[in-house]
Design goal:
By secondary structure, this protein is α/β, with parallel strands linked by helices. The chain is built from 15 helices and 16 strands. Strands 4-14-13-12-11-10-6-5 form an eight-stranded parallel β-sheet. Strands 1-2-3 form a three-stranded antiparallel β-sheet. It binds one RNA strand of 72 nucleotides through α5, β14 and α11.
RNA sequence: GCGACUGUAGCUCAGCGGUAGAGCUCUCGGUUGUGGUCCGAGUGGUCGCGGGUUCGAGCCCCGUCAGUCGCC
């Protein structure tokens, strides 16, 4: 069985379609909840599915260190291990090495580093990253890259991008021919148009099953990110999925989809769910704020998630203050539900050719802000 | 009844001659290819009470009240 990407409709630059895989379809634009350590924190897999997620993201870096890719392979692969039988996309490990590990050393060959867990030494090369992601059983494998930091000079960005392109070729070579599995290349080049173009050309000449925009949402701010997407997205092949890595807030997502992005992932809804930050159609709400302590109303009266149907703001406030585990469970569920509802709204609007109206409503409701205190 | 020790922010404590600090709490803000994290800002004290010494006292002296422990 093989994979395919079909575009069903476009509206301006925005697109909607389906990525078909042996493990099921992925409706695009898609938001992928992040399940770093073989779990979407605070959520049961069936609950993640119930929010509307078609695909999860898992992390090479974390899983190679614990419990190790070889152990997951012996136990039947990541899907069986974590009880998620739908598609999984795995990050290549490059970003986490740079953001989490100590004593990193980057060479032409790859990256050596010390584990943030026990200090043990490890190396990831493009070849090793492909092997790990194969052992995990990943459906969508990401090429090994270096996420260029921001800010950086043009010269640094260029050097970093070209290294990632050489690694992209090695990733392609090491990945081989694996029917039913996809390999995505990652465009770099920071915020520089000429570098983004050179990177896109390099990736296209190698040929991938999908193309990611990397190196954004790393501190440049939303305006700069969207300005970069204005030119970067269109450089990537129109007939393949385009994945914006690590994004983002709801308004980032709307802005990215508007510019032709098909897939995104972000820790925000799940991490926020554990830190009392709620995301709703009306914006961001901090459930720890004292104004909720006597409020019997749901977080969002129009939301159909189990949290909003069954629990009050006062209860959410209380369990966060008391640091009860159910706090993260309830709010993560709501946040993921909201994100998936947003994606469905985007897909429907693009399909109906009403993206602009959807976007206007989206911003108008957020501008109103959260419901007034009691 | 006697002795020792202790009384400083809501809590736990530091400061021991130059007109008060920390952590937590509390009130908020932040978190974008995840370490249930971390970062940032703010509110908050007649230093148990009353005298005294000193230019100046949480800090030294006297008294007093309260608590803890020990002894009778």
């Amino acid at each position: 069985m093989s994979t395919s990407f079909t575009l069903d409709a476009t509206d301006g630059m925005a697109r909607t379609g389906v990525i078909s895989t042996p493990r099921g379809d992925i409706r695009t634009p898609a938001f992928m909840p992040v399940g770093t350590a073989a779990t979407v924190k605070a959520m049961m897999p069936e609950s993640v599915r119930a929010t509307g997620a078609d695909i999860l993201l898992g992390n090479t870096y974390h899983l190679m260190l614990r419990p190790t890719a070889e152990r997951i392979d012996r136990l039947g692969g990541l899907h069986k291990f974590m009880n998620w039988d739908r598609p999984i996309l795995t990050d290549s490990g490059g970003f986490q090495v740079m953001s989490l590990a100590a004593l990193r050393k980057l060479t032409e060959s790859g990256v050596t580093f010390k584990s943030h867990i026990d200090g043990s030494r490890h190396e990831i090369t493009p070849e090793r990253s492909m092997e790990i992601q194969r052992l995990l059983g990943s459906d969508i494998v990401m090429a090994f890259d270096e996420c260029t930091p921001y800010p950086c000079t043009e010269a640094q960005a260029l050097e970093s991008m070209r290294l990632s392109m050489r690694w992209a070729q090695r990733s392609r070579d090491a990945f081989g021919d694996r029917p039913g599995h996809m390999l995505f290349g990652i465009q770099q080049g920071s915020v520089f148009a000429d570098q983004r173009a050179e990177s896109a050309e390099a990736l296209k000449s190698i040929s991938f099953d999908g193309y990611a925009v990397g190196g954004l949402a790393v501190g440049e701010g939303q305006e700069m990110m969207l300005r970069t997407l204005d030119f970067a997205t269109d450089m990537l092949p129109a007939d393949k999925p385009r994945y914006l890595m690590g994004v983002g807030k709801p308004d980032d997502i709307v802005g990215a989809v508007k510019r032709g992005i098909d897939m995104m992932d972000c820790v925000l809804p799940s991490r926020s769910g554990r830190t009392a930050q709620a995301w709703t159609r009306r914006g961001q709400v901090n459930m720890k704020n004292a104004r909720h302590q006597d409020d019997p109303r749901p977080l969002d009266e129009d939301c159909t998630c189990p949290t909003c149907r069954q629990y009050s703001r006062a209860y959410l406030h209380h369990v966060f203050r008391a640091q009860e585990m159910i706090s993260g469970m309830l709010l993560t569920w709501h946040n993921l539900h909201y994100y998936q509802e947003l994606m469905q709204g985007l897909r429907d609007a693009i399909g109906a050719g009403t993206f602009e109206a959807f976007e206007a409503r989206f911003h108008a409701l957020r501008a109103e802000g959260d419901i007034a205190p009691l």
